[in-house]
Amino acid sequence: MKKILWAVAAAATLATPAFAADLPRRQPIADTVYVPVAPAGVWTGFYVGAHLGGAFGSNFRNDVGYRLGGSSGFLAGVQAGYDYQINRVVLGIAGDLTYSTVSRRYIDLTPSDIRAKQDWSGSLRARLGYAVQDNMLLYVTGGLALGNVRLNDAILATSQSRTAFGWTVGAGGEYKFTQNWSGLLEYRYTDLGRGTYNAISFAPRVGYTSHTIRTGLNYRF
């Protein structure tokens, strides 16, 4: 009996290496690289909002030597638009209407007493953005700009206002605090061209350029 048990044990020992050799070997698993994709529609949709800001380095350019020069002021307004997201690229259209306190006065012994004021402005722009995070968007923007430039002549007791058309470009960022609310910070340069003011002394051609920084809130539907 013992001889039979020893024979079985010896056979099992000899068969184990051969059986192990027949088993399939475990292949190494290649490392995979995860590339995050922004969830579809994070930025897609309509929005409305309001903004506050300031204009600096603004200039009432003219051709008769009034030296109206640079000015600064306060901005407040509303905006609306629509964005469409493709992976992390965001395409959009935006418009805004802004009230301004920017003004400048020129007085000399000619006599001249001229005050220039930029009361309101608006724009219709395209936006191109990139979602660096699911809830953070960086963008550039540009398009049509319009606004009024009003001149008052205290010597002639006259006033004239013109609506000017030009262009605007800028860049900014927007951050979503919640699914519906986002905050923005934006810089823009605007050039409204020049127009002739026949009711003002020496009929000057006056234009307006500005640098603005604005911050605001948007509600996204």
Protein model, in words:
The protein is mainly β. It has one helix at residues 2-22; strands at 45-62, 70-86, 89-108, 112-133, 136-153, 158-176, 181-196, 205-220. 10% of the residues lie in helices and 66% in strands. An eight-stranded antiparallel barrel has the order 1-2-3-4-5-6-7-8. Strand 4 (112-133) and strand 5 (136-153) form a beta hairpin. The N and C termini lie far apart (87 Å).
Rg value: 34 Å
Could you give the count of β-strands? Answer: 8
Strand percentage lies at over 45%
Order of strands across the widest beta sheet?
1-2-3-4-5-6-7-8
Summarize the structure.
The N and C termini lie far apart (87 Å).
What secondary-structure arrangement, pairings included, does this model have?
Blueprint: H1 2-22, E1 45-62, E2 70-86, E3 89-108, E4 112-133, E5 136-153, E6 158-176, E7 181-196, E8 205-220
Antiparallel strand pairs: 1-2, 1-8, 2-3, 3-4, 4-5, 5-6, 6-7, 7-8
List its traits:
8-stranded antiparallel β-barrel, 10% helix, mainly beta, 221 residues
